[in-house]
Amino acid sequence: MVNVTDGFGSSILGYPRIGPHRELKRALESYWHGSLSRENLLAVGREIQEAQFGELAAAGLTQVPGNTFSFYDHVLDNALLFGAVPKRFEPYREDLHPLDFYFLMARGRPDLPPLELVRFFGTNYHYRQPELDADTRFSLHPEALLDEFDRAMARGIELRPVVLGPLSLLLLSKAGQVPGETEFDRLSLLDELLPVYEELFEILAKRGSTCVQLDEPCFTGDRSPAELAAFLTAYQRLSTAPLRPRILVTGQYGDFHEATAILAQTQVEAIGLDLASHRVRPEELAKIPGIRRKRLYAGVIGGTNVWRADRRVTLDYLSALVKVCPDLVVSTGTTLLHVPYDLLVEYDIDGPVADRLAFAKQKVLEVVSLAKALTEGGGGLAGGEAAKWHGRPREVHFKQKHAVRQRVYAITPEMREREPYEVRRDAQREKLNLPLVPSTTLGSFPQTDSARQARYDLGEGKLSYDEYRKRIESEIESTIRLQEDIGLDVLVHGEHERNDMIQYFAELLDGFATTHFGWVQVYGSRCVRPPVLYGDVSRPKPMSVEWTTYAQSLTDKPVKGIVTGPVTMVARSFVRQDQPLYETADQVALAIRDELADLEKAGVSIIQVDEPSIRELLPLRGGTQSREYLRWAVNAFRLATSGVRAQTQIHTHIAYSGRAEIVRAIEELDADVTAIVATRSIEWVLKALADDTEEGHGLSHGVGPGVYESRSARIPDIDELDELLTAAATALTPGRLWANPDGGLKTRHHWQLEPALRNLVAAARRVRRRAESQD
Predict the structure, then answer these.
(1) How large is the average pLDDT for residues 184-205?
(2) DSSP alpha helices (H): ranges in 572-681?
(3) Are the C-beta atoms of residues 699 and 676 closer than 8 Å to each other?
(4) Residue 188 DSSP one-character state
(5) What is the pTM of this model?
(6) Half-sphere exposure of 150 toward its Cβ, with a 13 Å CA cutoff?
(7) Which of 440, 442, 424 is nearest to 737 (CA)?
(8) DSSP per residue, 541-588
(9) What is the percent of the chain where pLDDT is above 90?
(10) Bridge partners of 574?
(11) Minimal CA–CA distance to 70: which of 107, 139, 146, 18?
(12) CA–CA distance, 589 with 5 (Å, rounded to integer)
């Protein structure tokens, strides 16, 4: 920890961990496939750790975070750090090496589902959700954390261990049920958990640690009075522990608000605010009693976007903050886990765009440079200009496209409306003639090495487009024949031409820039390359028509066109900040509207517009912001999908949320069929499926509650799938029910998906026969 007299400190809250060249991804997959030893995998992990803390120290950070590396997921790591192992995994613990037991919880096996995969605070990242019940007992297992700390100390680098805070560990977990009660209160375990944190603090203090970072991202969202009271109780206790390092508590991904005032009342030494996501006015911060005595980690550099900070404006803001909190450390607002490693390795991004970008390495340098400039009194803005500025994000302006903007301005309410659902339903039944409980998948099938190589060779100019098309058509034909053999009712072309559901369309739309090496971890070994949405969006030519119509030519069964929706394109890209999100979403929606029109003209009768990210962008705090977001998100989807005829069936695929406003939004999307990620949360979905709910906003259109978990290697049997589909059929009647997995099948192997899909088809036919016999 630096003293104010030494200047202002610099730090970050976390760093990418997959390796600059995805070394961990390759090592993990080799280990899982049996071609790499456990010792070699562990060695790769150590190399990544040591390269990381060495690099960060050399970059000039005055404080380097530790314990940010993970072999799969940091939330799961923290659950195991405190001994939170679900009962269903306990029988396997003694027979497995700790690393293999860890992977069992993360990946499962055919007879044992893994922990549920849940999106993390509106980012692209997913975490494995810990499971707790009333009998959970915590115990400390700090070996990995201490090993890294010791290795860094041996090199003269003191790490600041990063640990998930106790409240967020409990709130991010999945609650089991207490026998005889309807719901288990996770916070009832707090008194059991806090002594284990105190035990960790004592060990770290004796090891020479001077500061520990506790992340409490759950408190950047709305919390109940009971949860806020528990937060106060926890940090009053932890901050008065008899032997401990200094405590830094961070509020990442939004507005820490009430938690900041609570922490200011305790003896916690430091508070980290995500000022890049929610810029607090210095005068508002000054109103919090006790805040001046705290060390402020001013997170002015964004950890979830790739835009460079405006140096002059940011320095001015920091200068104003110093008057409120003289003990200040320049920092990132969140961990840098969510951005790519290094901009300098990208050779194909246009100069005007690249000049405005910063990836993880560049953001570290921004933090160091700002701290140095602040210490030296580097300039901000002139007084009059500074007084008007209250922390607006950097505005990045590029040349506007007049035609795109004119088209957005010409949008009318009628362009967001289709015929009534009842009219569409009857027209679609007549045209499609589908059976009750039709079975389908949600788009992607496993990609072969041949397909990946063909895409790579085409990009490198080693393969002509005609030869590329032949190879992809061969993959599509194999996928169609497989689905016919399985007996699915509505088919897909398999998406063999697509590297990713976002990047594929970004490469074909104007206004997006894509990277060659800009990998970001999604979960485990899964990585994506989020595009940069920097300019006005338009569609130069059709993007999916060629492949979908070829697939349809091979079969008499309907083949769905699959297109990524406008909200998801925005949510999973690094988006321009010089205009409102709703305007950007409408630009993307108009491009997708054109694509749907071309698919319909080509004879495609079912089109799926994927929107798994509707829930992701929902503001963490409710109220006006949530309502406004859902209004424009629904409007963008309807703009994209309302240009087709009544007989064209529009499907969508969303990640489910039990929040009432999301249920209303699903209904307002007005899709003919909605596929919902529901495998692990079927009880929530069944409640929403009912025609009449207490809130009066049940789902009234077609629904496919995903009953087969696409990200798991587990193969569900027919009886299990039958039970889930029967429960759903009871809630909404078989005439509105579809049978489908809860996501794409790209990450599965054929030996996994074939039996699972055959069981799905068999279960759907069972439900269909029972429904027909009752008629």
Answers:
(1) 96
(2) 581-601, 624-641, 660-669
(3) no
(4) G
(5) 0.89
(6) 9
(7) 440
(8) S-SSHHHHHHHHTT-SS-B-EEEE-HHHHHHTSEE-SSS-HHHHHHHH
(9) 74
(10) 532
(11) 18
(12) 53
From residue 470, alpha-carbon distances to 552, 604, 689 in Å are: 16, 21, 43
How far, in Å, are 274, 357, 486, 487 from residue 482 at the CA level?
49, 44, 6, 9
CA distance 603 to 600: 5
- Rounded CA separation 750/756 (Å): 10
What tens digit of pLDDT does each residue of 69-127 get?
999 999 999 999 999 999 999 999 999 999 999 999 999 887 888 998 888 988 889 99
- Residue-level pLDDT at 733: 79
Residue among 157, 2, 55, 59 at smallest CA distance from 369? 59
Pair of tokens at residue 407 = 């088209």
Non-local (6+) Cβ contacts of 586 within 8 A are 408, 411, 566, 632, 635, 636, 639
> pLDDT, tens digit, for every residue of 563-604?
999 999 999 999 998 899 999 999 999 999 999 999 999 999
Q: What is the DSSP string of 370-413?
A: HHHHHHHT-----HHHHHH---PPPP------HHHHHHHHT--G
**Tokens matching residue 273:** 């605010």
Long-range contacts, 664-669 (Cβ 8 Å, 24+): 664/630, 664/697, 665/614, 665/630, 665/633, 665/634, 666/614, 666/699, 667/697, 667/698, 667/699, 667/700, 667/701, 668/630, 668/634, 669/611, 669/614, 669/634, 669/637, 669/638
Give the distance, in angstroms, between the CA of residue 549 and the centroid of all CA atoms in the same chain.
32
Q: Is the dihedral of CA 502, 503, 506, 511 positive or negative?
A: positive
d(CA 744, CA 77): 27
User: Side chain identity at 54, as an amino acid letter?
Assistant: G
Structure tokens at 236: 């009053």
The pLDDT of residue 5: 42
Q: What is the pLDDT of residues 238-251, one digit of tens each?
A: 999 999 999 999 99
Instruction: Classify strands 328-332 and 295-301 as parallel, antiparallel or unpaired.
Output: parallel
Give 771's strand partners: none
- Beta-carbon neighbour count of residue 765 at 10 Å? 19
**Distances, alpha carbon 176 to alpha carbons 134, 170, 186, 346, 428, in Å:** 8, 12, 9, 46, 42
Write the single-letter amino acid at 467.
E
Report the amino acid identity of residue 541: K
Q: How far is CA 524 from CA 148, 578, 607, 724, in A?
A: 20, 34, 31, 28
The residue with greater pLDDT, 615 or 488, is 488
Pseudo-torsion of CA 334, 335, 339, 340, nearest 10°? 160
Report how far apart, in Å, the C-alpha atoms of 361 and of each of 22, 88, 138, 520, 648 are.
15, 41, 37, 14, 48
Are the C-beta atoms of residues 464 and 765 closer than 8 Å to each other? no
CA distances from 117 to 174, 350, 496, 530, 687 (A): 11, 36, 25, 20, 21
